[in-house]
Amino acid sequence: MASLRSVVATAALFANSVYAGKRTVPSLAQVIDQKSFNVLPTVPPAEEYNASNSPWTPPGTTAQNLTDRPFHIYDDEFYDILGPNPTFTVLAQTPKDPIFHEAVVWYKPTDEAFFVQNAGNPDAGTGLNKSAAIYKISLKEADAVKGTRNAVGKVTVTQVKSTPEIPNPNGATQYKGQLLFAAEGQGPNKAPGLIVMNPLAPYNTTVLLNNFFGRQFNSLNDLAINPNNLDIYFTDPTYGESNNFRPAPGLQNQVYRYNDKTGAVSVAADGFAMPNGITFSPGGKYAYITDTGIWRHGLELSNPSSIYRYDVKADGTFENRKTFAFIDTNIPDGVHVDSKGNVYAGVGDGVHVFNPSGKLIGKIYTGRTAANFQFVGGGRMVIMGETQLYYATLAAKGEFVESQL
Ligand SMILES: *[C@@H]1O[C@H](CO)[C@@H](O)[C@H](O)[C@H]1NC(C)=O
Ligand SMILES: *[C@@H]1O[C@H](CO)[C@@H](O)[C@H](O)[C@H]1NC(C)=O
Ligand SMILES: *[C@@H]1O[C@H](CO)[C@@H](O)[C@H](O)[C@H]1NC(C)=O
Ligand SMILES: *[C@@H]1O[C@H](CO)[C@@H](O)[C@H](O)[C@H]1NC(C)=O
């Protein structure tokens, strides 16, 4: 028995490696040696170099070659995420309008990815009254160009008119075969809420929840379904106020839980500066919530830019908040997991990948803000880059609540 086990183990080792213990670096990847920047010749003060600056460029690299080989291996565990031949493609771009911003969600029956525009951004060209628009692409079209780096013009980006219109959707997930959005609201009279949209024309919508015992939420940001009780958990920071399209907050910044059978709404967690992205681990043992308090009223560098992990109990409540990771480049906005429980965060220079213990193992580098991204079936990933739309394919696979697809 023992010898059979060791033969199997040796075979597995060889299947994963080309030369004794040394893995082949995929053509679009590069190894970043963290020892190379432990000691720098000069270290500038925060007023000159801080989380908001252009992305971290390790010694010996340039912005250009970080982008040329966008998969950055920080730890050997990242080879298993990438597989031998990861791909990375620019699918579309706009000159200015930040239409590739948030809420990436896969609709399995038509194999499309939906996403939304950056609400209230002056570059949207219509001032703060623009209610974020929803767009979609066909993943069949994306798959057809995945072998090229630049496929701009080859993939159609279609706008979808939700009816009644969802006021500033910002987070999305699958829900009972449809799409569920966290809407930030607009002005004092369009309340934030959880709104379901039919993913097929005429894209009609139904509001599930728009208040907490008669009080408006602040500006709902993101949401996730607990795979065990199917309750909807959602974050409510005050970015609507920060971005001047919602009034002063009426509630503290916190995370809620909604049970659609009983209608019960309760608070799942508080103690955040700006609770933002939320997700559950495969099987629902953990919840991950990002705190992006570093951006609240402008840049507040001593606030969190962190991912926290909670244990999720059988009754759906959270306990044991643990500091899971702190982000080096701007904020961790969207957060998602793969089927093995690795944690991915959309940050200031792309998508950072952490193993389940919170170790940074690699980056999918875009060189610009990636507020959100999502796996869209298997190892396919759509990444938002504000004016750039990216598509990556990996060996790792996304994790979904199957009953909701
Ligand atoms: C962060 O760095 C930028 C660019 O150097 C600088 O303009 C800004 O004032 C800094 N912010 C803080 C809060 O120090
Ligand atoms: C990146 O550029 C630097 C400086 O030109 C060079 O030394 C390094 O080998 C390049 N790395 C890659 C992966 O191309
Ligand atoms: C938004 O719309 C209102 C009412 O139409 C108008 O008074 C206001 O000036 C608009 N604000 C911006 C920033 O466009
Ligand atoms: C959309 O309309 C159809 C037909 O009336 C209805 O069955 C469906 O529940 C609606 N979906 C949403 C999300 O409102």
CATH fold name of the largest domain: Neuraminidase
Number of domains: 2
Mean pLDDT: 93
**What is the first-to-last residue Cα distance?**
42 Å
CATH superfamily (homologous) name of the largest domain: TolB, C-terminal domain
| Cα shape | globular
* Name of the CATH architecture of the largest domain: 6 Propeller
Pfam families: SGL (PF08450)
Protein name: SMP-30/Gluconolactonase/LRE-like region domain-containing protein
Task: Explain how this protein is built.
This protein is mainly β and 405 residues long. The protein folds into 2 domains: 66 residues, no CATH class; 318 residues, TolB, C-terminal domain (Neuraminidase, 6 Propeller). It is built from 5 helices and 28 strands. A 6-stranded mixed beta sheet has the order 1-2-25-24-23-22. The chain is globular and about 55 Å long. The N terminus is likely disordered. It binds 2-acetamido-2-deoxy-beta-D-glucopyranose (4 copies). The site of one 2-acetamido-2-deoxy-beta-D-glucopyranose has 7 residues, from strand 10 and strand 11. One 2-acetamido-2-deoxy-beta-D-glucopyranose binds next to strand 10 and strand 11. Pfam families: SGL. It comes from Podospora didyma. This is SMP-30/Gluconolactonase/LRE-like region domain-containing protein.
Keywords:
6-stranded mixed beta sheet; 405 residues; Neuraminidase; 2 domains; disordered N terminus; 4-stranded antiparallel beta sheet; 5 helices; 28 strands; mainly beta; binds 2-acetamido-2-deoxy-beta-D-glucopyranose; globular
